[in-house]
Amino acid sequence: MRNIKLIIEYDGTNFCGWQRQNDQRTVQGVLEKAISKIINEEIELIGSSRTDSGVHAKGYVANFKTNSKIPGNKFKDAINTKIPEDVVILDSEEVSEDFHARYCSKGKTYCYTILNRYEPSALERNYVNHFRGRLNIEAMKEACTYFIGKHDFAAFRSLGSSVTTTTRTITDLHIEIDGEKIKIFVSADGFLYNMVRIIVGTLIAVGIGKINAESIKDIINSKDRNKAGKCVTGQGLCLEKVFY
């Protein structure tokens, strides 16, 4: 069996997330159907993570096993002719048989974008979280520093997933200002369910003065979800890169 790796970009607006679901339009489901038609065999597409409904990706990684003789670098063009315009294969290649998009991953980088102005955006409404209020960016930047490192992030996950441990290592968390946009970049060796969206919600709470930046340490140590901020909406979130 050959092992084919894909780099995928998708607009998550009209998808019910990555993972295949009965009677729901998902990225995995759309791609598996297209690939199976091309190679005339059923495949399972292994994804690097489970993105939620409305979440986007610029560099999502997946792989599948096949007996097809199509050259690895030719799958990109073949698949792109069979899939809708809100998902694109950026690259394809044959990799070693033991490569696994999820288990071989060393980490990921996400970006969450906030549009910080009074008026919402007609053009970017599916790609940003609109926030009208004034935010203290310096306090938010200070709060970022307390997240970095190896911690138990139980306070920053939603219920709904079974994991053996809630300890993760955040290697970078920083804020970039791009005009009226606030971009929050976070890199870690792994993420809990809704972890990024809850971290962003907590940073917003710091920005409006509801939570003190130094209190982040206590919230982490408490492992109490009720002490962290709200889970923000999914459309502002984008998977930027997966590391191997």
Number of strands: 10
Helix content: 10-25%
How far from one another are the termini? Answer: 22 Å
| SS element count, helices | 5
User: Uncertain spans, ≥5 residues at pLDDT below 50?
Assistant: none
What pattern of helices and strands is seen along the backbone?
EHEEHEEEHEEEHHE
Largest sheet: 10 strands, mixed
Overall outline: globular
Question: What fraction of residues sit in β-strands?
Answer: 25-35%
Radius of gyration: 19 Å
Structural class: alpha+beta
Mean of pLDDT: 96
Give your account of this protein's structure.
It is built from five helices and ten strands, in the order βαββαβββαβββααβ. It is α+β, with helices and mostly antiparallel strands. Strands 1, 2, 3, 4, 5, 6, 7, 8, 9 and 10 form a ten-stranded mixed β-sheet that branches. The longest helix is centred in the N-terminal third of the chain and has 13 residues, at 27-39. The protein is globular, with a radius of gyration of 19 Å.
Question: Descriptors for this entry?
Answer:
244 residues; alpha+beta; 10-stranded mixed beta sheet
Describe this structure in a few short sentences.
Helices cover 20% and strands 30% of the residues.
